[in-house]
């Protein structure tokens, strides 16, 4: 389990700054400490507790081989989401959420299949059989698909959970997750409705340092979960090998 940041570390990252008090959502009231100069201040002790719950959920899902889709398309989150999703070997969406990514996964699979086919043809030099104009159009199609679905091109099934930076910005993703009964772990600022979120992380969802800190922790939790899964597989293989050797010895 990743070490939960201290209150000082969270303060330094700006996690405590919410939105203006006039823009708050009543369902976030339990996580609000107070108000300062018209700005809501998030109760970081509550954030610490929620982080522990959320990271445990991510770790548990990863430990059983689950897939966690990172989602963050707002400008300040894009590169951070990609960085940490790639670091823990998970898919991500950091451009635009394509409607139906979860609820119409079969259609998405067809699009992913086409992207893979075109990339394979390009690598093998098979696109040269087309006219120059056709090659140009296919190259553009590959580039456009890479931008839109590049982060999920290796996904083979509906993810077990989505890790979301801003549920207001990613409301379509959260709604689709509810329909498909996909777990939602999300950073929730004081202005959002956390309904539909299974594990709430009350924190500033605009500050780069805040987003970076939470994504890093999520990445570490997932890595730990995957390491646990790998150990279980290795232990089982060793146990099976030992059992086989015992059988052979007894037979001899």
SSE layout and pairing:
Elements: H1 7-12, E1 17-20, E2 32-36, E3 39-42, H2 44-63, E4 68-71, H3 78-87, E5 92-93, H4 105-123, H5 132-149, E6 161-164, H6 171-179, E7 183-188, E8 199-202, H7 208-251
Parallel strand pairs: 4-5, 4-6, 6-7, 7-8
Antiparallel strand pairs: 1-3, 2-3
Helix pairs in contact: 2-7, 3-7, 4-5
Q: Compute the average pLDDT.
A: 91
Radius of gyration: 22 Å
CATH fold type of the largest domain: Rossmann fold
Helix content: 40-55%
Distance between the ends = 46 Å
- CATH architecture classification of the largest domain: 3-Layer(aba) Sandwich
**Global structural class:** alpha/beta
Q: How many independent structural domains?
A: 2
Strand portion: 5-15%
Note the run of SSEs as H and E. Answer: HEEEHEHEHHEHEEH
**Quick one: overall form?**
globular
Name of the top-level CATH class of the largest domain: Alpha Beta
| Unreliably modeled segments | none
Q: Superfamily at the CATH H level of the largest domain? A: Glucose-6-phosphate isomerase like protein, domain 1
Main sheet makeup: 5 strands, parallel
Give a written overview of the molecule:
The protein is built from 7 helices and 8 strands. The protein is an alpha/beta fold and 252 residues long. α4 (105-123) packs across α5 (132-149).
């Amino acid at each position: 389990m990743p070490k939960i940041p201290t209150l000082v570390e969270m303060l330094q990252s700006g996690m405590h700054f919410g939105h203006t008090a006039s823009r708050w959502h009543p369902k976030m009231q339990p996580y609000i400490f107070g108000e300062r100069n018209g700005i809501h201040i998030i109760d970081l002790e509550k954030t610490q507790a929620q982080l522990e719950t959320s990271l445990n959920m991510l770790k548990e899902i990863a430990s059983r081989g689950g897939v966690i889709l990172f989602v963050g398309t707002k400008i300040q989150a894009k590169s951070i989401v990609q960085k940490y999703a790639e670091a823990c070997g998970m898919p991500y969406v950091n451009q635009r959420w394509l409607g139906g990514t979860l609820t119409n996964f079969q259609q998405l699979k067809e699009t992913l299949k086409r992207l893979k086919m075109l990339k394979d043809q390009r690598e093998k030099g098979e696109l040269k059989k087309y006219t120059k104009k056709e090659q140009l159009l296919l190259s553009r199609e590959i580039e456009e698909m890479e931008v839109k679905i590049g982060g999920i091109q290796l996904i083979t099934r509906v993810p077990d959970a989505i890790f979301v930076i801003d549920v207001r910005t990613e409301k379509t993703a959260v709604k689709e997750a509810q329909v498909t009964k996909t777990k939602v772990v999300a950073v929730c600022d004081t202005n959002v409705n956390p309904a539909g979120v299974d594990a709430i992380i009350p924190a500033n969802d605009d500050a780069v340092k805040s987003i970076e800190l939470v994504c890093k922790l999520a990445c570490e939790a997932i890595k730990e979960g995957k390491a646990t899964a790998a150990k279980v597989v290795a232990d089982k293989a060793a146990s099976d090998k030992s059992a086989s050797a015992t059988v052979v010895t007894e037979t001899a």
